[in-house]
Amino acid sequence: MNFKLTLYLTALLAAALVLVLFVVKPRNSTRITKEQIEAKQVFKMGDARLARMSIENGYGSFVLRQSAPGLWTIVSPVHTGVDTSVVNGIADGIRKLDYATDIGEGSLSAFGLSPASITATVVSSDNKAYTVEIGSKTPVGEDYYARAVNGRKDIFTITAWIRNQLDSTLYHLRNKDVLSVPRNAIAGMSFSKEHRPIYTLRQNNGVWYFTKPAYNRLRTTFLNDMLFKLTSLRATNIIDDARGLQGTGLKRPSAIIGMETTDNRHYDVKIGKEADPNDVYAAVSGQTPVYVVNRGILSTFDRSVSSMVDDKLLIQSKWSISSVEIVWHGKTVTLSRKGYAAWLKDGAPFTNTAGVNNMINTLTSVGASRFVAKAPPENAAITFTVVGTMLPTTTTISIGGRNNVTIYARTSIDPRVAVLGIEAFDALESGIKKIYQ
């Protein structure tokens, strides 16, 4: 009995210890930590929204306004958008600013606070101003001396992070996007070089094609690269007043990338001379700044038209296809993707997954040997109706018979008639036979 009693008491003691260590203590620690955090805060702003912010440092004086939560605008020394992550981080950093060490009273000049090297002020929507002044670095560690107006009294220290954020240049604070146009709003593009038009591009229901020098479809890989480079083009430097800047080459640009939006706005990105080994000068029509951008933007567009032409019958990638309806010798079969590597045939699980994937691989890679304006009328030997997640979501492909010397194909993504090689037809029909078995 004594042994059992001892074992029982030991288990009870262990349970009590677990309760104290993992339940009671964390709760107390959380409460204490929260109190400690609140006690360390320099400002007590509550939930008041910030309306304005000003920063004065060695790079100048900057004034910003917030029109809605998270929507800041620089209003001085220029009127421009902000780098949202940077400015929201600074505003939040001031609101939640903690001090590291309480120094107490002392000579302001001894701590680099008369005058301060950096001064930042935020004004809340109820018109209350909160100011932090930052002085010299502490002799030991990475902190800086600071003092507040309408906040904690006397002198204290703060971490280097907030000091470094407030020691920002105009470039660091501002929006660095050269073009603020979403990808799906771009309806056309063009490229000119040495004052000579090279090509123009348009899109219709997700199909991009050359309108000059002649009709051809644009390969998806090049399209994705072009749209990505345009919509993500960021300046490595921005020159607001370029009147005294010579040698940019923008008066007679070496290349112009044109862009037209779905709401009929037009932008020309003019490319000038080298700014440095990695960058070139650039300007956008209707905008005053001169931008410095990575020179890679030029190589994205400066390609031969022949290398960018797409001769495939289908734009969809094999991974974006969700279903394929096949009509062959008057019999219809519908394949539907059930999962990553699983297919249904006419609604029932289909075990020949490899056969379906091989047929899809062939279908997405078949290209025309050439295109012609029209072909003699004939009944289709094979018809595919492909549904996928890419635009155009539905594509119909009709292919003529194998017994002809020339095999013609019509695809709904191209107004022309494609001429196929015999081997392409045979590969498609071989894959279909395995599906129909």
What does this protein look like?
- It is a single chain.
- This protein has 437 residues and is of the alpha+beta class.
- 26% of the residues lie in helices and 38% in strands.
- The chain has nine helices and 28 strands.
- It has helices spanning 2-40, 84-95, 160-166, 170-173, 220-231, 296-301, 305-308, 353-365, 422-436; strands at residues 50-57, 60-68, 71-76, 80-81, 101-104, 118-124, 129-137, 144-149, 155-158, 186-193, 196-204, 207-212, 216-218, 235-239, 255-261, 266-276, 279-284, 290-294, 309-310, 321-328, 331-339, 342-345, 348-350, 370-372, 382-388, 394-399, 407-411, 417-420.
- It has a ten-stranded antiparallel sheet. A nine-stranded antiparallel sheet has the order 4-3-2-1-6-7-8-9-5.
- Strand 25 and strand 26 form a beta hairpin.
- Helix 8 (353-365) packs antiparallel against helix 9 (422-436).
- The longest helix has 39 residues, at 2-40.
- It is elongated.
- The termini are far apart.
- The mean pLDDT is 90.
